[in-house]
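Problem 12. The chain below contains 484 residues. Write out its predicted structure in C-alpha cell notation.
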Amino acid sequence: MSEIKKFEKILIANRGEIAIRICRAVIEEGIKAVAIYETPDNESRHIYIANEAVWIGPGPRKDYLDIDRVIWAAKKSGCQAVHPGYGFLAENPDLPRACEQEGLIFIGPPVQVVQDLGDKTIARRLAQEAGIKVIPGSSILPEGEDKVSSALSFSKQYGYPVMLKAVAGGGGRGIRRVNNDAELLEQLPLAEKEAISSFGDGRLYLEKGLIRPRHVEVQILADNYGNVVHLGARNCSIQRRHQKLVEIAPGMLQPDLENEICQTAVKFARYAGYRNAGTVEFLLDHDDQFYFLEINTRLQVEHTVTEVITGIDIVRRQIRITRGLPLDISQKDVLCRGFAIEVRINAEDPKQNFAPESDKVVSVYQSPGGPGIRLDGMVYQGYKISSSYDSLLVKLTVYGFTWADATSRLERALRNFVIVGPKTTIPFYIKIVQEREFLSGQFDTEYIDRHPELFDYRSIEREEAKIAKLLGHINHKKYNPFAL
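Solution.
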C-alpha cells in the first residue's frame, strides 16, 4: 500500500480558464489553491478564484514557462504539489523532474512516462510492442543532406499524402500535410525551424497520411495499484490545421467499435506503465480500421465533455491518484449517457483566417444558462483581450440525452450569448450547428475544408448589443444623442 500523502496547498502552474477549473477542483478537495501570474495577468480572474496568488515576473509568457520561477513560487507559498494544467509546461518532463528534486509532487504521470510518451516515435514503438496497429511511419529523420533523401524514400514507398511531424509536437501543433515531392522539399526546413521555435527540438519524422480520417480519443485514469479505467471516447474530427474546433462525447461510432478502441487504449496504458489522467488518440480510416496516433500525458482542453456524460470529475481524480489513493471507480461504474458538445469561443475573426482580436475590450458579456449548459471561462465585462496569450474567452459545453437534443441546445446557447467588443467564433459555430452533415453526426478531419460556406455568415448585431453600446456612449459622453 502506497503512503497516502496529505496536501495542504497545491500550486496551479497555469493561467486563465484552465487555472480556474483546477482551482475549483482543488478547493472542493479541501485543499488550498495557489495561483501564479505575470504582470499582464494581474487582473485575471484565476488569481481571485484561488486562495492565494504569487507574482512570478513581468512576462509575458516567459515566466509561465520558467521552471525555476514555478518551483520558487511553490516553495515560497508552502505548496506540497504542482498541477500543470494543459499547455505551457504540462508536457515538459523537466517540470516533474524539478519537482522531484525539490521535494514537490507533480500532479501527472511519472517523469519517465512524460519523457518517453512525449516522444512520438517512442510512443509509436511502445504501441507496436503492445500489439496495437500504428500508421506506417519513418524513424527520426537524420541530420544534414540525408534528411531529404530519407524523406523522399519514405514518401515514394508509401505514396502521398504524408504527414511531416515534429517528434516533440503536441496539441495539433508541429504537423504539416505534404502532397508531393516539391512540397516535401519546401516544407522540411520550415518544419524544422517551427519545431525548434515551438518545442526546442527540431527532430522530425514522417507518417503515411490517411484520407478523410476520423479522429477519436479515449480518456483514461490509472492509479498506483494497477487499476486502469477508460471514461469513454471523444470525437475530435472537426479541426482546422490539426487544431480541434469541436469536441464531442461519446466517439460517434458504432458501440462495438467504440468499445474495442477504448479497450485498446486501456491495453496501451497498462503496457506503458501509465499513471494519472491521460488521453490515447487514434485515427480511423473509411474501413473502420483504427490506428494509434499518440498519447497526451496531461489534462485535455476537451475533458469537459467526458465529465458531462459520465459525471466523473477528472481533475479531482488526478489529485487523489497523486496523493496515493486508489481509484474509487471500476470500469463497471463508468456509464456514458447522452451526448455532450464543446466549442471554444475565442476572440477571433474566422473570416480573417481566425485572426485574434487583440487589445479589444469586452464591453458587454451575457452568457447563456438553463439545463445542460456548462461554461468554463475567464472573460467578464470589461475584460481586455491580451495579445500576449491565447484568445480563448470561454468554453461552452452542452449536454443532451440525444444527439438532436444536444445540437439544438448548442444552437440555442450560442444564440443566447452576447459578447460586445471583439469579433468571436460564435457565428461560425452557429453555421456549423445548422449544417446538414454535422446534424447527421457524420464528419471527419477534412470537414472544414469541404464546407467553405461555413465562413459565409452575416454578423448580426443583437438588440441587447445595440442598447449596451448606447448606454456606454451615454455614460462616456454624458448625454443621450437620441434624446428629444
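Discussion. Residues 136-208 form a domain with the Dna Ligase; domain 1 fold (CATH 3.30.1490.20). Students who got a different answer should revisit the alignment rule from Section 12.3.
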